[in-house]
């Protein structure tokens, strides 16, 4: 898909899902749009989007990698 300019996003590459049961970071340049994959629009609609400029910053803040768009998930 593409980077977003809605919700809390302003074109950043990485979007963290702040939902306490998820706590994962997504790479919007490698987003997977299939059923049960990244679901970025749903995350934004729920108000659970937090922008990051780097994957490392999101990981350092406690977000796990999305299995689909980044890989190396710890879940």
Distance between the ends: 24 Å
Order of helices and strands: EEHEHE
Tally the beta strands: 4
Q: Could you say which structural class the secondary elements and strand pairing correspond to?
A: alpha+beta
Strand arrangement in the largest pleated sheet = 3-1-2-4
The major sheet is characterized as: 4 strands, mixed
Could you tell me the strand content as a percent range? 15-25%
Large-scale geometry: globular
Q: What helical percentage do the residues reach?
A: 10-25%
Write a short abstract of this structure:
The protein is an alpha+beta fold and 75 residues long. It has helices at residues 40-45, 55-60; strands spanning 14-17, 24-27, 49-52, 64-65.
Structure overview:
The chain is of the alpha+beta class. 16% of the residues lie in helices and 19% in strands. It has a domain at 14-65. It is built from 2 helices and 4 strands; from the N terminus they run ββαβαβ. The chain has a 4-stranded mixed sheet with strand order 3-1-2-4. A hairpin with a 6-residue loop joins strand 1 (14-17) and strand 2. The longest helix has 6 residues, at 40-45. The chain is globular. It starts with 13 loop residues before the first strand and ends in a 10-residue tail after the last strand. The mean pLDDT is 95.
């Amino acid at each position: 898909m593409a980077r977003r300019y809605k919700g809390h996003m302003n074109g950043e590459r990485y979007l963290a899902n702040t939902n306490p049961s998820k706590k994962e970071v997504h790479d919007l340049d490698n987003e997977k749009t299939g059923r049960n994959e990244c679901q970025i629009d749903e995350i934004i609609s729920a108000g659970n989007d937090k922008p990051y400029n780097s994957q490392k910053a999101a990981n350092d803040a406690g977000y796990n990698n999305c299995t689909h768009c980044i890989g190396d998930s710890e879940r």
